[in-house]
Amino acid sequence: MGILEWLSEPFAYPFMIRAALAASAVGALCAVIGSFVVLRGMAFIGDAIAHSILPGLAAGFLTAGRGDRRILFWWALGTAIVVGLTVGWISQRNRVREDTAIGIVFAGMFALGIAMISTSRGFAVDLVHFLFGNVLGVSVSDLWLIVGFGLGAILLVLLFYKEFVLVSFDPTFAKTLRLPTAFYQYLLIVLISVTVVVSLQTVGIGLMLAMLVVPASTAFLLTKRLPAMIALGAVLGALSGVIGLYLSYYWGVASGAAVVLVSIAFFLIALLYTSWQRSLPRRRPTSFPAP
């Protein structure tokens, strides 16, 4: 088998084309939003939102059944936004720290979801797809949702880029400029919630945090400026999605796990490269005699 045939064979199937588009779109989106998550140390909130949407999935299943996944998507999206905003409200309006608020909301929502799932036997089987992802089952309507919400989230980042940067790096100075810092913090939480829900079918709840953090962290190791970090992270996230699908097709491994493992491989390569660079002796500038 030639290299061109090897590369083109998986895409002879329409579901593989949809899967590649979805995986690359999700990888790029996660890297863009994940750049701010990494810089602000908000990784825990992404994981909490991913697990706290369980009651929304259960409610969607109980009300609409397993026939229409779009209903599950909207229930999950609404739940994620409510959870994110609740965490932000608790941490800003009270003396409770943000990580404590996340833990309380996460535990309560996850317990509620388990209680709701226990009332329906059939949902336990469908839950596997949300835990581990099912990118090969992406339909045309699913793809439109992923691309539409992904482009909307990236557009908001571009529109409020300066504000996000200022609030992330120097919130005290942002307040002196009379910027509505709370608004931008809530907006970032909403964008994280959208990213989590959009990425569910690709990598699932269990692996969501990895795609939100790993590509951005890899770019952070290799770049010194935020725009370059976002751009490189998006490229690495998209590449992880496509290469992971190739591994899934030829090696028969779970697609979501393959995508995450590729992104972690990129991170380890970047980590080794930067460690090797730091170990090299620095050359001193040559001194020339004064004329």
Plain-language structure description:
With 291 residues, this protein is mostly helical. It has one domain: ABC transporter involved in vitamin B12 uptake, BtuC. It is built from 14 helices and no strands. The chain has helices spanning 3-8, 14-40, 43-52, 54-64, 69-93, 98-117, 123-132, 140-159, 161-169, 171-176, 181-198, 200-222, 226-251, 255-279. The longest helix is centred in the first third of the chain and has 27 residues, at 14-40.
Q: Determine and state the CATH class.
A: Mainly Alpha
Shape label:
globular
First-to-last CA distance:
66 Å
CATH architecture: Orthogonal Bundle
Query: DSSP helix count?
Result: 14
Helix content: over 70%
Q: What share of the residues does DSSP label as strand, in percent?
A: under 5%
By DSSP, the count of extended strands is 0
Number of domain units? 1
Q: For the record, what is the CATH homologous superfamily label?
A: ABC transporter involved in vitamin B12 uptake, BtuC
Average pLDDT works out at: 83
Could you describe the largest sheet, including whether it forms a barrel?
A: none
CATH fold description: ABC transporter involved in vitamin B12 uptake, BtuC
Work out the radius of gyration. Answer: 21 Å
